[in-house]
Cobalamin biosynthesis protein CobD (Methylotenera oryzisoli), 322 residues
Amino acid sequence: MSFDYYPIISIYSTALAVITAVLLDALLGEPKRWHPLVGFGWMANKIEHALNRNMWPCLARLAGLSAWLLLLLPFTAVSYLAQHTPFAWLADVTLLYLAIGAQSLSQHALQVHAPLSEGDLPQARHAISMIVSRDTSQLNETEIATATVESVLENGNDAIFGAILWFVLFGGAGAVLFRLANTLDAMWGYRTPRFLYFGWAAARLDDILNLIPARLTALSYALCGHTQSALKCWMAQSSTWYSPNAGPVMSAGAGALQVQLGGNAVYHGTTKQRPTLGMGASANTQHILSATKLVKRSIALWCLVIIAVSILMHIKGSLTLA
């Protein structure tokens, strides 16, 4: 049997890159200063204010698509070029590390959990306002816990698993494309008068990029929690949610935790009638911790699956060369 180290290194490099990036995020968290996403958000705001003018719907949609391309194509192209340098592997690890935010997500959730556990609703409302777009000024304890669990579950897909999947498929450029597209959706993807047409492209393109990751995330939550409940809620409830990708993620996550999520919430001064997701008791502080643990178990599952696939590819390659 012939044996060549270079194909082996190539096969395992993606798995090693994912594990390294995940470990860096766990050890270092997000950069405290000069995070690229902060600078990207600043640029996005500038371009949006310049291009989002009062215009016909079709022109507003075209302007939004142009802004999306103007912001994403240069960064994705640079990331792609970085994959064809002698430092390609280090570039890929760095880009994935910057694209995922597992540690930050957990920290934000714990910053809500701490004051909520002590009955400090004003501080808990302030903490949750940092990670959700709904009006938090009048939320009670259950509503704060519900919003936090929802944010953890949904951002598990948006800030972690989606970036990892696109990285596995296309390297650092894939992770950058996904994360920046998701950031623009978070900034522009609202059905408000300002963004109804301008943000249309950002919202629809994010839906496309999230189509597969969201369902793999939902499956991960099901496998890492109460599986039967998660699958039951996913099948019965996901289609009732207003987002085609958040529906599977949140319904499966709620079922996996055996908690009720959803319910009415105020966004931009308007009350949105949201269906109930999940089953069991209403959300409380303990469910916040359970949600962060569910995401961490799912990360471990993804790493194990990626390693297993790499091993199978190695075995297949070795048999082919035999």
Confidence is low (pLDDT under 50) at residues 1-9.
